[in-house]
Amino acid sequence: MAAGLVDAMVGRLGGMIVDEISKEASLFLNFRKDFKWLKKKLVIVSTYLKDADVRIVHNKSVKGWLLDVADIAWDAEDIIEECAAESIYANDGNTKCPCAICPFNNCRLFFRYKMARRIKDVRDRMKTIMEDAAALKLVADLTHSDQQASTSTSQNVKWKRSSVLERDARPVAIEPKVEKILQLIDDPAASIIAVVGMGGAGKTFLLQNVFNRIKERFEYSIWLSISQTYSLQRLQADLAAKINLGDVVNGRISEVQAAEFIYSQLESKRSLIVLDDVWRPTGEDDLIRTLGLPVGNSTQCKIVVTTRNEDVCRSMNARVYEMQVLSQEESWELFCAFAFSDCEQNRPQRDLKQIASEIEKECARLPLAVKTVAASLTGKTSSRDWKSKLREIREISNKGDPIMEILKLSYDSLPAPLKPCFAYLSFFPEDERIDPEYLIYLWIAEGFIEGGGDQVEIGWSYIHQLANLCLVETEDKKYLETIESCKMHDLLLDLAIRLSEESQCAFSVEAAFNKYQTSCGCRRILLGKQSINDDVIASNSGAYSASRLRTLSLSSNDSIQNDPAKLFTGMRALWVLDLSLTKITALSGNLKLLRVLNLSRTDIVELPVCVRSMKSLRFLDISYCRNLQELPVWIGELNCLEYLNITGILGILRRIPEGISKLVSLQLLRSSEDIRFTNEGNEKLLKLEHLVHLINLREVRIRVEHVQDLKRIEEGILAPLVNMRILSIENRVSNDDDESVLPHLSAKMLAMKDHLEILYLSFFAMPAGVCDFSNLVKLHLMACDCADYPALEEMPNLRVLIMTINRKCRVLPEGFGKPRGFPQLRYLLILAFDVLEELPDLEEGAMPLLERLEVGNCRNVKKVPCGLELLKSLKVCDFRMADTNNVFGKELEEGGEYWNKIKANIPNLTIRL
């Protein structure tokens, strides 16, 4: 188990050595011989480790040897990173030596002396490792590997990013189960409904289907995930944000006051509230009342709970639905859907049917086990592979926790690069909804994603792979089928924690301070959502030299207010630091190796000066730092920065320094509002012409407020940004001569067509050639004011089309209703078309995947389009026309002829008027 993680790290380290030596950096020239010797030994060990998990998994002595190898690799990597950072630091003309008592050259000599001693220590330990290998009778393998080392290196897995994540389209007949829960919810006497069952039985999946079916019937539909060690304050904040109380329940009031606000907001509203995975009975912790939920109001508020604990149901006096394991037939159907998703009708070929049936029976009819085992066999056609899997499952069937061992088999079958990525998920708290972009940059920072390609895209492919193998759960952005967040099933999280602790490289713990004192080799530590405050940090700071720590998270400890720099003393190897959701106002310390810094939702008043020395920093999140008003001029010195999140800081958006244009590596400049540009030459602030220097930029939202900038855009100034994925341009320049004349985007913008996925234009004319943007998945056109639209229905990947405010279009093109038009469209919104007279009738095959159709404030449309009943995928149809004659209300009156016709073809359609 440990070998897979060690192998990934050792292989990465060998590549780092080659890369750094090839740079001819002055510090590396002093140690070139040592590094080359170390690389040779690491290649030998790495080659041996390729199948070590299988051959020696039960040998405790060899496990210890593996951990010693990992320890050496960690320390060698630390040395390389420190040398690289020191070279950058020494050659940076803007950086001064922090030591005031000696000349800078003497500092460098002292640094070389320290590095020489540490390298000698690594060499000595590596020699001991080779000697231990001989004693453990691994020497033959290593000798063979040594002979191959000159001609063989670790093979890199070639990844291809999936364009669309495979869907979890479970064939299990869940409809009867859904109906039974719906009956409980509809019972006027039932206020609390509990779904109870063992872990992995599919409780959450079932309830998600129920929730999606009926959420439109309620004013508030809220889903809350409850962890074993939940924070009531955080749950209240999450709940409040979903019922328009986010500004009131913000951590500055007591939990009792928050509960009172929540209660008063929900008391008179028809609400559906799901509490997923409740662990403790209310006798121990009355979660429902302390949250502020209106208990007993069974006609207004419905509370649905999932739990493994029957005592929870009894303590809540809930109506219970007991979740059973799958029937034999259901289990087989589910297995085939995942194992044979690439076969006709999801059925196995003849020679695999019998062995597939035997494997399925070993999964105990638990959906999680069935899915993960089946997914690990997708695409395998050799009976040898299937027999090997069956043998492995039967070998573990008598172990203490067979379900956990079955899940571990799926981990064992992962490609080497994915193993550390999966284990790293143990670093996130239970039920945490993980931002996939943040996760990818953490993987990059930790070195799990090797260079030589687009690391972010490779990271996305890793997430897709883990999701397709059912090892992570994903939540998609509405209608776009792009991943918005991901999380782990709690059983899989337990597995990831077990893997990390066995490899002694990561701990996700409750009493983290106590455990760290006895775990000097710990490389990652999580202190999130715990009672860690300023006094605890001050009293423990001397106990932790922490010189080997790579990753530290203090996220969500809102009792931390002072600069926690004392805790960082000696953390020379720190790569990742997460201080989000604390109340710190400042940060200091020598953190030169830092690659990821998360300061989101802190109380900092300025970007800490210590950030300036972080020359390896790639990810910086300062979103929602309400007290932060501007970025420093030196922000442009962070040459490696790829991700900068300034969401929710309006002051910064008005005063972005010119220096940001020097961030040539910047890919994502994330903001919730549009970036505004100055037009005054005497201020050293960002101007539109500076933006084009960021040639790697993939996402930007800009607001045009000056005539000169508008002309530049019409001339195509943004065309060089060919890597753009998301582009939003809002025109705020008024045309006093003729408001009906709108600016045009230059045809040069077609240079973006290969990558652009989302385009938002406000007060621009319909762009020429927009249909050539074949990868576009979302198009939002506001106030484009064209009388006719191009052949948008021919865009092959368009999923969301929003068209608002039009004063010229009288008739939409017939193509909107023609067969094979809009083949991927899920959501269509037409709003405020002042002179639109009719909507096109729909023919069989038009918009085959449309799920939601909204038409509003089109007062001149007097006729409901024919053919609505042909939109078989439609779930919501919303016609709010501001029509005084209520033509739509009459034609679509419940029980009327057209209403019955539509409902006969689409029985679950929700129609709103």
Summarize this, please?
The chain has 30 helices and 25 strands. With 913 residues, it is of the alpha/beta class.
Considering the chains and any ligands shown, give keywords for the structure.
globular, 25 strands, 913 residues, 12% strand
How would you portray this structure in words?
- InterPro entries: Apaf_helical (IPR042197), Disease_R_plants (IPR044974), LRR_dom_sf (IPR032675), LRR_R13L4/SHOC2-like (IPR055414), NB-ARC (IPR002182), P-loop_NTPase (IPR027417), RX-like_CC (IPR038005), Rx_N (IPR041118).
- Pfam families: LRR_14 (PF23598), NB-ARC (PF00931), Rx_N (PF18052), WHD_DRP (PF23559).
- Residues 9-89 form the Disease resistance N-terminal domain.
- The structure is a single chain.
- A ten-stranded parallel β-sheet has the order 16-17-18-19-20-21-22-23-24-25, with helices on one face.
- The longest helix has 32 residues, at 60-91.
- Helix 17 runs antiparallel to helix 18.
- The protein has 30 helices and 25 strands.
- The radius of gyration is 30 Å and the shape is globular.
- With 913 residues, it is α/β, with parallel strands linked by helices.
- Strand 16, helix 27 and strand 17 (699-704) form a beta-alpha-beta unit.
- Mean pLDDT is 78; it is low at 20-28, 53-57, 100-104, 139-169 and 508-519.
